[in-house]
Amino acid sequence: MHKIPFFIGTFISYFVPGRKNRRRVRGWINMFFFYIPIRLFIKRTYGVRVKTMRFVRQISMKRMTCVVNDRYFVKVFRFVPIKRLNEYKFLLDFIRPHLPVKIPKIFVAQHIPMYVADKLPGRVMVDFDKQVIMKSEKKIKKQVFEIITALKSIDVNSIPDNERFIYPIQVCRVGKGIDKNAVLAHCDLNPTNLLLDSNLNIVSIIDWDSMAIVSDVNKDEDGFENLWEKYKKSV
Predict the structure, then answer these.
(1) pLDDT at position 144, please?
(2) CA 3 to chain CA centroid, nearest Å
(3) CA–CA–CA angle 116, 110, 31 (5° rounding)
(4) How far does Cα 97 stand from its chain's mean position?
């Protein structure tokens, strides 16, 4: 049943002209279906500490998110199987100490996978628009490549030897096995997945559902460059 709202949102948005409009409609529909479960989830997670809770549409991310107490950033994944998300949680807990920035905590509640970042991007309520980000392009790129370097330092051999936490993740294989030089990669590093503070410093990385074990250590760097160029061309 938990898959149905995502399918409904995608189906209805298919008939809406314009890519931006389709994204907006799909986001609103998903939030409409999940509004009550999200509220219950947040209440259980934060309890009496919840003073304010509101849904906002972020500027450059072009997606709906929930903001708790003007601080906590809550996002609902597009459908990811619970088993797979729990495997991500295991790996993220393993990766977290190795990176110079935060990785959001992941919660699973009522078949609705979510993550919660400890800081909100940008100025209090919304993230920075593209024009502001472009002014600090060099600074942000430098930070991203530092993160990529940190990811490269965590090779497959350093992951606890348990196939259950390796093979469900996207794997680039060399021959019949995993390349001994393979590394973990985010695979979707782009400006919309980097949470920034008021000085445009990266404070957290989100959207780890594309995480993979890859044989090419430059994959993340190349992927980020390509996504960055697309981002600059986007309206």
Answers:
(1) 93
(2) 19
(3) 65
(4) 18
3-state secondary structure of 85: helix
| CATH number for the domain whose boundaries are 130-233 | 3.90.1200.10
Domains of the chain, by residue range, sit at 4-117, 130-233
CA angle 189, 123, 150 (to 5 degrees): 30
Residues forming beta bridges with residue 24, ordered by sequence position: none
Q: pTM for the complete prediction?
A: 0.76
Q: Please state, in angstroms and rounded to a whole number, the distance separating the CA atoms of residues 80 and 106.
A: 12
Question: How do residues 190-220 score in pLDDT, each as one tens digit?
Answer: 887 888 888 888 888 888 877 888 877 788 8
Phi, psi of 96 (to 5 degrees): -45, -45
Instruction: State how far the Cα of 86 lies from the Cα of 175, in Å rounded to an integer.
Output: 28
Q: What is the 3-state secondary structure (H, E, C) of 132-169?
A: HHHHCHHHHHHHHHHHHHHHHCCEHHHCCCCHHHCCCC
| CA atoms of 96 and 99, how far apart (whole Å) | 6
Whether the CB-CB separation of 169 and 213 falls below 8 Å is answered with yes
154-183 burial string, b = 16+ CB within 10 Å, else e? bebeebeeeeebbeebebeeeeeebbeebb
Is CATH 3.30.200 correct for 4-117?
yes
Which one-letter amino acid corresponds to residue 134?
Answer: M
